[in-house]
Design goal:
The chain is of the alpha/beta class. The chain is built from 8 helices and 21 strands. Strands 5-12-6-7-8 form a 5-stranded parallel beta sheet, covered by helices on one side. The radius of gyration is 23 Å and the shape is flat.
Length: about 350
């Protein structure tokens, strides 16, 4: 039973299955002195009728770096602030380094290792505490808060098991309550749209075909950040790999896009393909791509991670010339030479 309150009062709905997909909301960040009319989140950002002259973005995660690139293209001066020492901290360090260099080349002012401590509405000054002490960024007429999101779990406490990341689910989207399912931002996994869609299909399968054995693990879900350049990755990142495998088990191979013929003709300065594979067998366990259309290049490596494909098998593939996908072939060739 689900109790729903609305304009017409409270209704009680009953069903054999209930799917919770209530999503998330921006994590609030109180900045002393910053008025509401100058405070933006991803929920009201797209209601702007014009670009701010100087936009400060607090948070250098996916939303932060995507919007930094977008507003820099729209002509805004952009200052990107984060307490972390690198942009996109959930990605590989090599990806963060290349992306930071590209953002700086676009004129985006990076203030890493810094936190916002206040705002002076009179001279539009954003006050920071940085590596060198107190800092001030002048002329900031709007601030985008992009420090993460909170799952919308209100009303479900005591009904299903919840934690800091949201409603706990298994690989099929089942919660701790029989007949109750959850997916998307309200859960700790699959926060991107394509991930939520994949988990949604599995929930539909279990509801519609309950007699089919629930075989197989959860899908391998890639991540993609549509900054400039794009950053896309699949599989465990370096800290997770270090916790799971001995350092001698894996080998990392990187090919810079600037060293490929397509990268040369397109003038690509920032980008690479990085693959982590089992040293002897070549089984692909993780991959990161930075560069033009990185998210479009990743599916082959996503398939390789999902199906435990070896780089030796990928080495036999022929890629059209000249394409960025040739960099994946170059990685496979390098592994074959090393082996």
């Amino acid at each position: 039973r689900v109790s729903v309150s609305g304009p017409d009062g409270t209704r009680t709905l009953t069903a054999r299955h209930v799917v919770i997909a209530t999503g998330s909301r921006p994590r609030p960040l109180a900045i002393p002195g910053l008025p509401p009319e100058r405070t933006l989140t991803n929920e009201n950002l797209f209601e702007l009728t014009g670009a701010p002259e100087h936009l400060a973005i607090v948070g250098a995660g996916p939303i932060g770096v995507e919007m930094a690139c977008a507003f820099a293209r729209l002509g805004s001066a952009v200052t990107l602030v984060d307490v972390s020492s690198r942009v996109l901290p959930q990605a590989e360090r090599e990806a963060s380094a290349v992306l930071a260099e590209a953002l700086a080349d676009q004129g985006i002012d990076l203030r890493l290792g810094s936190r916002v401590v206040g705002y002076d509405a009179e001279d539009l000054g954003l006050e920071l505490e940085g590596p060198r002490g107190a800092e001030r960024v002048s002329g900031v007429d709007a601030a985008l808060i992009a420090v993460g999101r909170l799952p919308n779990v209100e009303g479900f406490a005591g009904v299903v098991a919840t934690g800091p990341g949201g409603i706990a689910v298994d690989g099929w989207g089942r919660t701790s309550a029989e007949g109750v399912w959850a997916l998307g931002d309200v859960t700790p996994t699959a926060h991107q749209t394509h991930g939520a869609n994949a988990h949604g299909r599995r929930i539909v399968q279990r509801i519609a075909l309950p007699w089919v054995p629930p075989l197989g693990g959860p899908p391998v879900v890639p991540s993609a950040v549509f900054s400039d350049p794009e950053v896309a990755w699949v599989g465990p990142t370096a800290p997770a790999r270090a916790a799971r495998w001995h350092p001698g088990v894996l080998t990392d191979i990187r090919v810079d896009l600037a060293s490929t013929d397509r990268g040369l003709t397109d003038g690509v300065r920032h980008g690479f393909v990085l693959v982590s594979a089992v040293r002897l067998t070549g089984r692909v366990v993780a991959a990161t791509i930075v560069g033009p259309h990185a998210a479009e290049l990743l599916p082959l490596l996503t398939y390789a991670v999902s199906r435990r494909v070896s780089l030796l098998r990928l080495q036999r593939m022929v890629h059209a010339y000249p394409t960025f996908a040739g960099a994946i072939g170059a990685v496979a060739d390098e592994f074959a030479r090393r082996t």
